[in-house]
Amino acid sequence: MKHSDLLSIARDYGCPVYVYDAHKIESQYKRLTTAFSEVTSLKLLYAVKALSNLSVLKFLKRLGAGLDTVSIQEVNLGLHAGFDPRSIIFTPNGVSFGEIETVAGKGVQINIDNLSILEQFGNKHPEVPVCIRVNPHVMAGGNTNISVGHIDSKFGISIHQIPHILRIVKNTGMRINGVHMHTGSDILDVGVFLYASNILFETAMHFKDLEFIDFGSGFKVPYKEGDIETDIEEFGERLTTRFKTFCDEYGREITLAFEPGKFLVSEAGYFLTKVNAIKQTTSTVFAQVDSGFNHFIRPMFYGSQHQIINLSNPDGRERFYTVVGYICETDTFANNRKIKEIKDNDILAFKNAGAYCFTMASNYNSRLRPAEVLWYNGESHLIRERESFEDLVRNQIEVDFD
Ligand SMILES: *Cc1c(COP(=O)(O)O)cnc(C)c1O
C-alpha cells in the first residue's frame, strides 16, 4: 500500500483507524504454500485470535485457508463467515467440558490438551475423533510471556505423559486423528522449530489412525529494522524433507497443517492516528496521539516496537520523539524514536498492526474502539464502523434511584 492511500483513508474515515492490506495477506499466504508446495496435502489454519474481522476471515477462506480457534465464539465467527466446520480446529485451554462438547457437536475438529478432559471426552463420545496437543518442552524464545512449550506451561499434554494418553485411548476406544503442538509465538530459528518437530514426529508414531499432524505456529515476522524473520523458504525445504521421511516410516501420507496468525496478517496492518499535541518537557518531546493502549496494547503489554511513519511529512528532517497516547495511564508507544518532524494534526502510521491489535482493543477510559478498513483491489472497504456512544451504554441497565 502506498502512503498516499493510507492518508486518504485517514481523511475519509477519520482517526484512529485500522487498515489491512488484503494483498499483503494474500502474498504471505502464497509464500507459505509455495514453501511447502512439495507436500501433497497441506492445510493452513488461520489463527482467528490474531485478527477476527468477518471480512478478513472471508478473504482467508477465499484463499483456501481453514481456521484455528480458541473459543466457541471464534468458532461461531468462522461458521458465520461460511467456513465448513470440518475446516476448523478448536484448540482451547482451560475451557469448560460443555464448551468442548458443544463445539464437537457442530462438526468442528477438537484438539484436547488435558488428560482428564481427554478421558471424560473419550468415555462420553468415543465415536468423535480428536486431536491431541502435546507439549514438547521446547523453549521458544527468551520471553516467558510467549514461550508456551516449556516445562511449567499450562498448554499441551507433556510428552512424558504419552503412556497415560495411550492408556486412555485404549480404555475408552476413542480415535486420535491428529497430533498438534504450538510452541509459542516467537520461535527464533528454524533449528529450534525442527528440533521440536522431531519430537512431534516421534509422538505421531504412537498413533495409527492419524489424518494430520499440526505444527501450530511460531513464525516470526520483522517489526523493526534488523529484526530476524523466520526463513520460510529454508524452513519449508527442510521440514518437507523430514515430513516425507516421516510419511514413509508411518506407512502412508497424511496432512501437514500449520496455524499461522501473525505471519499472515501482522505486516498487512497499519494503525493510523492523529497527533493531538506536541508537548515539550524539560527532557523529552512528546507526540500525543488520539489513541492509547486501549486501542493498541502491544507496545505496553509485550514491549513490541512498532515502526512509526509520519505520513504527513515524509520529507521532513528526523527528530526524536516519545510517542504517547491520550488515556490517563502510562501508554507509551515508542520511546525516543527518530521520526520525521511532527506537527499538530499530522497522521502517524504504526506498522505491523494487523495481528493482536484490534482484537486486544478495549473501551478503557470509555473511549470508542476504532473503525477497520480493508484495502482490496485499489479500493478501501469499511469493514467495521467506529463505535458510538450507544455501543458504550448498550448492555447497561440503569437503576432508577428515585
Ligand atoms: C495463537 C495461536 C496460534 C497463532 O500464533 P501466531 O504467532 O500468531 O502465528 C496458532 N495456534 C495456536 C494454538 C494458538 O494459540
What tags apply to this protein structure?
binds pyridoxal-5'-phosphate; eight-stranded parallel beta barrel; alpha/beta; Lyase, Ornithine Decarboxylase, Chain A, domain 1; single chain; nine-stranded mixed sheet; TIM Barrel
In short:
The protein has 402 residues and is an alpha/beta fold. The protein has twelve helices and 18 strands. It has two domains: 22-265, TIM Barrel; 269-353 and 370-385, Lyase, Ornithine Decarboxylase, Chain A, domain 1 (Beta Barrel), CATH 2.40.37.
Describe what this molecule looks like in 3D.
The longest helix has 19 residues. The chain is of the alpha/beta class and 402 residues long. The protein has two domains: 244 residues, Alanine racemase (TIM Barrel, Alpha-Beta Barrel); 101 residues, Lyase, Ornithine Decarboxylase, Chain A, domain 1 (Beta Barrel). It has twelve helices and 18 strands. β2, α3 and β3 form a beta-alpha-beta unit. It is globular and about 70 Å long. Helix content is 30%, strand content 23%. The strands form two sheets. Strands 1, 11, 12, 13, 14, 15, 16, 17 and 18 form a nine-stranded mixed beta sheet that branches. Bound molecules: pyridoxal-5'-phosphate (PLP).
